[in-house]
Design goal:
10 strands, alpha/beta, 28% helix, 20% strand, two-stranded antiparallel sheet, 4-stranded parallel beta sheet, endoplasmic reticulum, Dolichyl-diphosphooligosaccharide--protein glycosyltransferase 48 kDa subunit
Length: 185
């Protein structure tokens, strides 16, 4: 009997450590252009399910239970998610312990903008770029929107930026975002 209890406890632990990951894409070519990132996730045990962000059959929940533990959204221009997925469903997913990674570009759609606002991030207006008059690249065409970030100033996060000691400067040209702090009562 004790063995049966231990086995059931182990199965609960294994289920809670699920690596099931839903990857929502603007288009399936992103799967190829970002293949190194997706491969690194798979090498760490994540089971990836790729779907179009506006797929009408999308769902994060089945029979009251979350289907996935992780959600990756590489669909910056999506105006509306498909199926049962919407900003409310994603914030509920987060509140219930789900992990979410969102990538954006300078053409952010309403769905991503609204999701960002729900978690305290304000995204600049569509088509805008970060401007830096001190750290712009020499190849910049005068707008100072191609920014050079020296590798020593990068976050120590090899999964995101690689080994800071072996890479050169990073060029960034993209939209600005700001963390919005809300008043705490």
């Amino acid at each position: 009997m004790c063995w049966l209890k231990a086995l059931s406890l182990l199965s609960v632990i294994v289920i809670s450590q699920s690596m099931e990951t839903l990857v929502l894409l603007d288009n399936l070519s992103i799967r190829e252009t970002h293949s190194l990132f997706f491969k690194s996730l798979q090498q760490r045990g994540f089971q990836l399910t790729y779907r179009s962000a506006d797929d009408p059959s999308l769902s994060l929940v089945k029979y009251g239970t979350h289907i996935y533990k992780h959600l990756v959204i590489f669909a910056p221009s999506v105006e509306e998610f498909g199926g049962n997925v919407n900003v409310e469903a994603i914030t509920e997913f987060i509140d219930n312990g789900g992990n979410v990674l969102v990538a954006a570009n300078s053409n952010v759609g309403d769905a991503i903008r609204e999701l960002a606002a729900e978690v305290g991030v304000e995204i600049d207006e569509e088509g805008a770029h970060v401007i830096d008059h001190m750290n712009y690249d020499v190849s910049d065409e005068g707008q100072h929107t191609t920014i050079v970030a020296d590798s020593e100033n990068l976050l120590a996060a090899p999964t995101i930026v690689g080994d800071r000691t072996t890479i050169g400067p990073i060029l960034y040209r993209g939209i600005g975002m700001m963390s919005v702090t809300r008043g705490v009562l």
